[in-house]
Amino acid sequence: MSWTRLIRFVAKDTKTYYGNAILPPGTTDIGKARSANIINGSPWSSNYIVTDRIAEITHLLPPIALADCTTLRCLGLNYRAHAVESNLPIPKSPILFYKPGTALAAPFSDIPVPFMAQEHDGLDYECELVVVIGRDAKDVSEEEALDYVAGYCVGNDVSHRAWQIELGGGQWSLGKGFDGWAPLGPGIVSTALIPDPSKLRIQTRVNGETMQDSNTKDLIFGVKETLSFLSGGTTLRAGDVIFTGTPQGVGMGRNPKLWLKDGDFVEVELEGVGTCGNKVVFEKGKAKL
């Protein structure tokens, strides 16, 4: 038996497990799971076992352990309507940047905002389809690309526009790579349940108000094209994640601009997967000199 809704969680026995989420009737939101079948072995290997042992969930962790994720790749400007709102031309090839592993965060954890990201306006949200690699891939064709995908989840590419664009010398990763700025989950839905990622509704809500509401059919470079491009001469490892870009409606694209504030609650949702909900928490006290 293969996993279909992979989660990583702390159980009531205080131990951490990978598990196959058991959903309540009538929902596809993994975040509503209260129990899971424990998985023995690494879900990124070929010899794991989904056991009959059921554990109650205390809280969800990032669905991929940092030790199992070698790289967080991210695409920028990958929705047509987002390129339009940004007053930028449609890219001719994927725009790639990276987040460090320390950005990886749980689906319901706080978004910590350090002092250097508080000194200027520009804190923004970005809901994104996240692709999780299932087995090592190098030089794969578009036709075979989906064979290397384990599944999909939703992520928030938390961004600080001033550090991304104006202050960091044009190094996008600086304004997007602070600790905890890649919350994702709430779990990973396998390709058996989502065979076609090209027509999924994706949304962002801030304090309950819808800010982004789009569909992955507006992606400029779909999952097949993205994996084929990124695997050219480079090995994508099992457990690696790819943030595939955000649709229109970001705070930077609004008039007036809408920046996240201390205490805001941000939800990103992907059809068939569920919702990540994260509170914005500004670091308090005095900055260290």
TrEMBL record:
Instruction: Record the organism.
Output: Aulographum hederae CBS 113979
| One annotated GO molecular function | metal ion binding
Organism's domain of life?
Eukaryota
Which family is this sequence assigned to? Belongs to the FAH family.
Q: Which UniProt keywords apply?
A: Hydrolase, Metal-binding
The alphabetized list of GO BP terms reads: oxaloacetate metabolic process
Q: What is this protein called?
A: Fumarylacetoacetate hydrolase family protein
* InterPro entries for the chain: Fumarylacetoacetase-like_C, Fumarylacetoacetase_C_sf
- Answer yes or no on keyword Iron: no
Residue ranges of the Fumarylacetoacetase-like C-terminal domain? 73-281
Write down the PANTHER family for this protein, in alphabetical order: ACYLPYRUVASE, FUMARYLACETOACETATE HYDROLASE FAMILY PROTEIN (AFU_ORTHOLOGUE AFUA_1G02370)-RELATED
